[in-house]
Amino acid sequence: MRLIPTSRRGTLWRFAGGALIVVLFTATATAVAGLLQFKQLATEIGGSPPIVHPRVVIPQPGQPQTILILGSDRRARQPLNQSHSDTIILVRLNASSSTINVISVPRDLQVSIPLPNGGVQTAKINEAYPDGGPNLVVKTLQTNVFPGLKVNHIIDITFAGFKDLVDAIGCVYTDVDRRYYNQNIGTADTNYSSINIPAGYQKLCDENALAYVRYRHTDTDIVRSARQQDFIRDAKDQYGQSRLIANRDKLLTIFGKHTQTDPDLHHIDGLINLFNLVAFSDGHAIREVHFPADLQACPPPAPCYVTSDPVSEARAFRSFMAVIKSGSPSTPPAVPAGVRAARRAPAAGLERDVADGKAQAAALSRIAIPVYYPKMIVGSTSYMPVTPGEYPRAYEIHDPQGVPHPSYRMVIAFNASMGQFYGVQGTTWRQAPILSSPQEIRIVGGKQLELHFDGRKLRLVAWRTARGVYWVSNTLSLDLSNQQMLGLAASLTRAR
Fold first, then answer.
1. pLDDT at residue 27 in the model
2. 388 lies in the same domain as 305
3. Which of these three, 321, 352, 372, is where a domain ends?
4. What is the CATH number of the domain that holds 17?
């Protein structure tokens, strides 16, 4: 378990998520605005020196591209060896695919970093950045993780832009899996960034958004990466083209000010080549490819490594490079293919737990929405203990028009020490953005369920009544099977 010092060296996401949002969505606005916007962005990026001799392969116009996005804490005039890269994200853009494929490489992945003198250093992959900058990160990925990787562009987002970016695009509604809390009082076990974000679907702004995506105290690299990618997906889904065009100048300024790239993106032709491809991908879903990471025990003072085997890495890389056709067997259909029925709720891996569910519901007795709890939960898991004001949580969600909607959240620990929690959400806000695009409708246990997938895994299953909408959220790392998710949702029962 690692503590985050109060200095910003520990910022996890840096502004890589923000970079991804800007790269994906500035394209359409700049294409609409014309050549002057590309000139502006080239000027903004030109304020930082390009990466010297980048390990990139410049693509021909229209070809698929792989972009490496790094989140680093490098500051102006700071030596490279005092910088760190806590985020390594690869993005695959292909106009022939219905998805934008994204994979996050854990910062703690154990690798052999190739050194300039011909030797190697066994260390975490985030140590490649201070040893040799973005180029050594690329080389380390190619020699250790993905031998067939060819990077077309490198985008290194430096220290100071995430909060500005969130301010510019507005707040983001996101599904917070549990309470994130720390009050820094200077003791050894609290000496990391203060945070106080309760559980439940809610709007995150400013410092709260930054605190949420950078949190790295009581979970793992795998969970943190999944949380970051959830936030990226939510921001992408909620940030419309009209708002993008209205704010394009501010976004371009923020992006250029805090970004270092390969030289090709300092020129208009290179930007047009990339952004034309992104424009074709504007309506494509973000598809997260999970990195096959294994967490290793790390008794002090041993470092906390993440490991992976070459066969699993090769499989993940093939999935990352895959072209996903709309409606192909590799993914659920892009639109509901009709209503499918199952005779009874699947119960694999579930066990009956009515008493604890009733106790959770009883703690919500004053809320202005019917309360439903699952009769079944995953075996060997348990509800977070009833704690007034924390678990279960009764609250209101305010929609973009400021209308309050009574809501509640029950949180169930799958593996609390690893930061893995799943939960049940109820709200009267029937148009919540997270529910806008179900990929399948299925009847299970007599309930018409709305299914939301991440690849082949269910991340959310929703069910509507006349007075509200309810959903079961998978853990951030998608640990629950599809059958378990369906069984949980089908077992939802109203408290009397």
1. 41
2. no
3. 321
4. 3.40.630.190
Helices 16-33 and 162-169 sit at what angle, rounded to 10 degrees? 50
CA distance 296 to 293: 10
Residues contacting residue 224 through CB under 8 Å, at least 6 positions apart? 12, 215, 216, 419
The answer to whether residues 368 and 292 belong to one domain is no
**In sequence order, what are the residues at sequence separation of 6 or more whose Cβ sits closer than 8 angstroms to the Cβ of residue 117?**
none
The residue among 170, 181, 298 whose CA lies nearest residue 240 is 170
Three-state DSSP class for residue 409: strand
Report the C-alpha dihedral over residues 170, 172, 173, 178, rounded to 10 degrees: -130
What total number of domains does the chain contain? 2
Tens of pLDDT, residue by residue over 176-232, are 999 999 888 888 777 777 899 999 999 998 778 878 887 877 787 778 878 877 887
* Strand-pair category, 457-464 with 469-473: antiparallel
Cβ 145 vs Cβ 313: under 8 Å: yes
Mean of the pLDDT values across residues 293-300?
Answer: 73
How many Cα atoms occupy the beta-carbon half-sphere of 302 within 13 Å? 8
- Distance separating alpha carbons of residues 464 and 446, to the nearest angstrom: 12
State the Cα–Cα distance between residues 420 and 480, nearest whole angstrom.
10
DSSP of 29-44, one letter per residue? Answer: HHHHH-HHHHHHHHHH
The residues that bridge with 283 in the sheet, in sequence order, are none
Write out the two tokens for 29.
Answer: 């606005």
Instruction: Give the H/E segment covering residue 213.
Output: helix 206-214
Pair 301, 412 in one domain: no
